[in-house]
Amino acid sequence: MNQETINDLNRAIKTLERKNRWLTLIVLCLFAIGVVSFLNQTVFETDSSDSPSQDKIIRVRGIVVVDENGTERVWIGAPVPEPLILGKRFPRGGRMSGIILFDEEGNERSGYCTSDGYPNVLFTLDSIGRQHVLFMSEPQGDTTLRLWNGGNSFKLDIGEEESSLKLSSGGKVLFEVPPPSPDEKGAIK
């Protein structure tokens, strides 16, 4: 792998890290706005029989934030709904709980969730109908970062026992560490 390719990879990773920081900030701000709005309308409107020093806990299964047109833009729930893409619900492949973001048309575009059944924590960035970025941490600590668009992909897996990195362009592997074993070379992944 030449120095120019490594420099291109470093620039791409820095760009993704910057975008991830901004998206995380936006998600946290939207979450805070939603919680503050909800609290403002429920908890802070006390009747005269409540004492001012009384603590309150709100327990809900979900909060939905809608825009001025009534389009759902943020779902915070346990569980969140199946993905909505171009007006149609599709199976998620298992129940998830967390925060889901939608675009102005109502299409699911991102999520920060835990999965039910197997407690992975996931952060995704999606185009309309396709996932393109996945950050995932498994309960024992193994971590995955995957980026893909068509036949172009970047995959980084970090486990306690070993780590791996694979870069593909046009469906062809450009770089892979560790290299595949001879019996894996012909296998479809």
Give an account of the 3D structure.
The chain is α+β, with helices and mostly antiparallel strands and 189 residues long. It folds into two domains: 8-39 and 59-139, no CATH class; 140-181. It contains one helix and twelve strands, in the order αββββββββββββ. A ten-stranded antiparallel sheet has the order 1-2-5-6-7-8-9-10-11-12, covered by helices on one side. Strands 3-4 form a two-stranded antiparallel ribbon. It is elongated, with a radius of gyration of 21 Å.
How many structural domains does the protein architecture include?
A: 2
Q: How big is the Rg?
A: 21 Å
**Overall 3D shape:** elongated
Helix/strand class: alpha+beta
Q: Could you report the average pLDDT, rounded to the nearest whole number?
A: 85
Q: Please indicate the percent range of residues in DSSP E strands (runs of 2 or more).
A: 35-45%
Low-confidence stretches: none
Number of helices: 1
Span between N and C termini? 22 Å
Provide the helix percentage.
10-25%
Total beta-strand segments = 12
Q: What profile does the largest beta sheet have?
A: 10 strands, antiparallel
The largest beta-sheet arranges its strands as 1-2-5-6-7-8-9-10-11-12
* SSE run: HEEEEEEEEEEEE
